[in-house]
């Protein structure tokens, strides 16, 4: 009987910590970065070419323009990705767009609200792309889970940036 009480106490403690995570941690943030041996103009252009996105984010199944504004800010796109055999539909909204400097995107992906702030800098012909990402959830349970997957989110975005590097550096200068 004593062992059962101890086990139930441990399980209860884990449940309380898990639920408190969702109350305390409102946003999960992380950074990823890559340096690409191409000019900032080439990197920025390739990054923003929707026809090339599948070359560096292989999970993208489709990319559809919903509303494209002059200057890009406020433009909305519908993206379908394949995640572990399941299709996930999301919307992407451009919050900021400064040519050769910055792109800020907001994603609403079935409960996951994500803001990606990409900063582009160049030094000696090498362009550095820095991603400052933040994730939130519109459900309490997902908010409890996100902080524990911060490393996974960061690894995934870092792999996308690494794919972008390979793609852009492999392109013949046009």
TrEMBL record:
Pfam families: AHSA1
Keyword Transmembrane: yes
Keywords: Membrane, Transferase, Transmembrane, Transmembrane helix
Every Activator of Hsp90 ATPase homologue 1/2-like C-terminal domain range: 39-133
Protein's UniProt keywords contain Protein biosynthesis: no
Domain of life according to the entry: Bacteria
GO molecular function, one term: transferase activity
Transmembrane segments: 6-25
InterPro entries: ASHA1/2-like_C (IPR013538), START-like_dom_sf (IPR023393)
Record-stated family: Belongs to the AHA1 family.
Name recorded for this polypeptide: 1,4-dihydroxy-2-naphthoate prenyltransferase
Organism field: Polaribacter atrinae
